[in-house]
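Retry 2 of 3 after timeout on previous attempt. Resubmitting structure tokens to design endpoint.
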């Protein structure tokens, strides 16, 4: 609680000064009047109750006879054993209503897929978000930040990626299982297929067995083979891991639905698998022609653009202007955004991935958490990696708040499943080139800084408040501009229940008798930074 502690210490310091002045009064009556005036301005310091005090209060009130409030509907998450032979190994999540109104959280979904024994540990990136403040808040179940800002609240409503949920049949009769094994063909094996590590990172995360399954799934998806036998003996977990990686790596397979089917025998081995193709695309060849035609029209606009960054910005802006966020039966496919113009986050991310890959720029599909299941992209520019969320930049007007940002600055995004092993995004060369930095002085700020460090912000604020106090003014206003990432920390420290009264944009620090107060309000700027207005009132 650096902000609160330091501000309270500032007021406490003033009180210490008052005490010193009072002691000085005995030796020099001339200062008595000054000390009295300061004491009246500051008033007693207010310190929020400690946790143990709250616990004691609750215990003291335990015997109160009050009406019991009606319980509200709540949601819990559970595995659905009826859908799977080995439900504890699979990812299907069922949301069930119970007795209060708590929506599903990140922790309800996280790590429901066990990826052990399916990945090549030596080939995956060691992704580590480090001091990801938002991730900490999410893991602790604190999503209050998501509702406070008009833009962020608009963005959080655009998270509608779907977990790929398999349909499962268990074959318990050994003879029937053997018949399936003997008669179901392999289909295409794809054994000669090769996938560049720079453009298809998910393939290279897999173990050797899963890579063979990946190739087979990819080849049969292209051949429109709906059912086949796995080329390798495998468990459901291994086959699902391979299927997911194909889905993440290949947006061009737009006719493949994000659901799948498999049959397993009495030993838990997968003996038959099935791919689902969209009923809305009865003629894949005709759909490919339309898809490629629209894609090529978009790509033609990148002709003459010299840098990968210029191409990226062009594709980003084109998709934002082209697409309308809207649910539909194909909204997990690139076809919903190329050539169609209506989709959700998956469609945006797959369109961006496909078009940038066609331009020769490594771009990856990312699955994770953004208030709900969400999808965005990672792009490689020169030797650096960046996060890009075209969906959340599709606002009115268009923004670049989630364009080429680091993991640290990619607020409200937490990677999940295989996406955790994509390269860390720490690039800065191509960050922040689109949003014009605000001019703090024109906004009425006390200086030209845009604060990124909380200690520097607090120290400067205390100094400026001290100037108001020593000027003997009863009230004063100090404005400062802080960065978007600092705002997260600023908000989390000041917007606890004890510091605001329900106003989503105002925090208060007050004296216990109410004679003095410090009010802090925020305003989001077009650049994504925040203007913080601090109003101090020393009372009568």
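Retry 2 succeeded. Sequence:
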């Amino acid at each position: 609680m650096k902000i609160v502690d330091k501000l309270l210490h500032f007021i406490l310091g003033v009180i210490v000064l008052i005490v010193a002045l009072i002691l000085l009064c005995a030796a020099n009556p001339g200062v008595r009047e000054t000390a009295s005036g300061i004491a009246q301005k500051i008033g007693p310091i207010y310190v929020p109750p400690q946790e143990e005090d709250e616990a004691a209060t609750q215990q003291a009130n335990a015997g109160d006879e009050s009406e019991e409030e009606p319980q509200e509907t709540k949601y819990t998450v559970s595995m659905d054993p009826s859908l799977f032979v080995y439900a504890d190994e699979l990812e299907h999540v069922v949301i069930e209503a119970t007795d209060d109104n708590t929506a599903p959280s990140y922790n309800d979904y996280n790590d429901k897929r066990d990826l052990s024994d399916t990945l090549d540990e030596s080939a995956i990136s060691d992704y580590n978000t480090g001091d990801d403040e938002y991730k900490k808040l999410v893991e602790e179940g604190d999503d209050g930040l998501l509702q406070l800002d008009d833009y962020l609240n608009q963005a959080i409503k655009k998270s509608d990626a779907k977990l790929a949920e398999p349909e499962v049949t268990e074959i318990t009769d050994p003879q029937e299982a053997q018949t399936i094994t003997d008669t179901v063909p392999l289909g295409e094996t794809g054994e000669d297929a090769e996938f560049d590590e720079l453009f298809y990172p998910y393939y290279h995360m897999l173990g050797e067995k899963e890579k063979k399954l990946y190739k087979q799934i990819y080849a049969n998806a292209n051949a429109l083979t709906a059912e086949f036998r796995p080329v390798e003996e495998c468990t459901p977990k291994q086959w699902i891991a391979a299927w997911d990686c194909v889905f993440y790596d290949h947006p061009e397979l737009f006719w493949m639905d994000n659901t799948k089917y498999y049959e397993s025998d009495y030993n838990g081995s997968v003996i038959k698998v099935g791919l689902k193709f969209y009923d809305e695309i009865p003629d894949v060849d005709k759909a490919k022609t339309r898809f490629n035609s629209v894609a090529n029209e978009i790509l033609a606009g990148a002709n003459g653009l010299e840098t990968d960054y210029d191409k990226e910005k062009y594709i980003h802006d084109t998709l934002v202007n082209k697409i309308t966020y809207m649910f539909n039966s194909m909204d997990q496919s690139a076809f919903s955004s190329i050539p169609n113009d209506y989709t959700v986050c998956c469609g945006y991310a797959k369109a961006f991935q496909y078009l940038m890959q066609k331009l020769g720029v490594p771009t990856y599909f990312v699955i994770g958490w953004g208030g709900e299941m969400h999808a965005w992209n990672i792009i490689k520019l020169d030797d650096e990696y960046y996060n890009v969320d075209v969906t959340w930049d599709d606002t009115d007007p268009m923004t670049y708040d989630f364009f080429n940002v680091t993991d640290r600055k990619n607020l409200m995004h937490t990677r999940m499943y295989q996406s955790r092993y994509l390269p860390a995004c720490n690039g800065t060369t191509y960050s922040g080139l689109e949003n014009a930095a605000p001019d703090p002085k024109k906004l009425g700020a006390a200086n030209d800084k845009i604060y990124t460090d909380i200690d520097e912000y607090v120290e400067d604020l205390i100094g400026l408040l001290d100037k108001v106090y020593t000027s003997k003014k009863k009230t004063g206003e100090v404005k400062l501009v802080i960065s978007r990432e600092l705002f997260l920390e600023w908000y989390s420290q000041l917007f606890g229940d004890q510091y605001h009264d329900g106003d989503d944009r105002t925090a208060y620090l007050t004296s216990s008798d109410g004679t003095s107060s410090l009010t802090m309000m925020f305003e989001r700027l077009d650049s994504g930074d925040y203007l913080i207005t601090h109003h101090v009132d020393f009372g009568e």
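Attempt log closed. Confidence is low (pLDDT under 50) at residues 15-101.
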